[in-house]
Specification:
Elements: H1 3-33, H2 46-50, E1 54-64, H3 75-90, E2 96-102, H4 107-123, E3 131-137, E4 147-157, H5 183-192, H6 210-221
Parallel strand pairs: 2-3
Antiparallel strand pairs: 1-4, 2-4
């Protein structure tokens, strides 16, 4: 074999190897092109995962302050107790627990006030058999402990207390929020929900007003306005700054 043929074969081999190497490089680029990019990503539901709102059975409570001297309750407080009892009745509660302090400075006054509370709850639909009185130990004899009313109901709440700081606020470098972030907001939302079960399954839409619907369709066909004629009264929040000083 001559030197010329040997060089030609060697050149063809090198060219083929170059083509294969280029194809492998392109294939490698195509493989890494579809890999997910996670650099700098931030979870959108971080605080919802750390501080979830859970719907579970809990207690609705109302504390009644009782003075040391005297066992009478003011009319406004008695109205609030009756409203609490009516709300418990609407929530389907069958009984209300009245927790009376024991060993406190106002123990005698609280005992007599609990009788008055039983009468008020009776007007809300809870008879004497549905009011369960139980004593509880007060923190100290010098404290004027309240009477606590309670009934079981479904509540929405965050399963832990806010204000915990297991990590420093700016201790991480992964561009995520700190641990306590969003806890207060979640707790406030859970407290403001009127019907906690709506967080699990929303309430169905009520029936449409057939009379109003017919009136709107009739006005639409006539080319008239279909909105309700309602005008708020023109009032001012304050006269400060109004023109015409004396």
């Amino acid at each position: 074999m001559t030197t010329t043929r040997l060089l030609l074969r060697l050149g063809r081999a090198l060219a083929t190897a170059g083509v294969l190497l280029a194809a492998a490089t392109v294939a490698g680029c195509n493989t890494t092109k579809y890999e997910p990019s996670v650099t700098g990503s931030v979870p959108n539901d971080g605080f919802r995962t750390r501080h979830p709102i859970v719907v579970e059975e809990g207690e609705e409570t109302f504390d009644v302050p009782v003075a040391t001297q005297g066992d009478s309750l003011p009319p406004r407080l008695m109205a609030a107790i009756e409203a609490f009892g009516r709300e418990a009745h609407e929530q389907g509660a069958r009984a209300i627990t009245v927790m009376v302090p024991s060993g406190s400075r106002n123990e005698a006054a609280a005992y007599h006030a609990s009788r008055r509370i039983t009468e008020v709850l009776g007007r809300a639909g809870f008879g004497p058999q549905a009011v369960h009185k139980v004593p509880y130990a007060a923190v100290g004899p010098e404290d004027a402990a309240p009477i606590r009313l309670a009934y079981p109901r479904v509540v929405a709440q965050v399963p832990h207390r806010c204000g915990r700081w297991p990590d420093q606020v700016i201790g991480g470098l992964d561009n995520t929020d700190y641990w306590n972030f969003g806890c207060a907001t979640q707790s406030n939302i859970a407290t403001m929900v009127a019907e906690p079960t709506d967080l699990v399954s929303p309430s169905p839409i009520g029936k449409a007003d057939a009379t109003r619907r017919a009136a709107v369709i009739q006005a639409y066909r006539k080319g008239e306005k279909t909105r309700s004629e309602f005008k708020l009264p023109e009032t001012t929040a304050s006269k400060v700054g109004a023109g015409g000083g004396e």
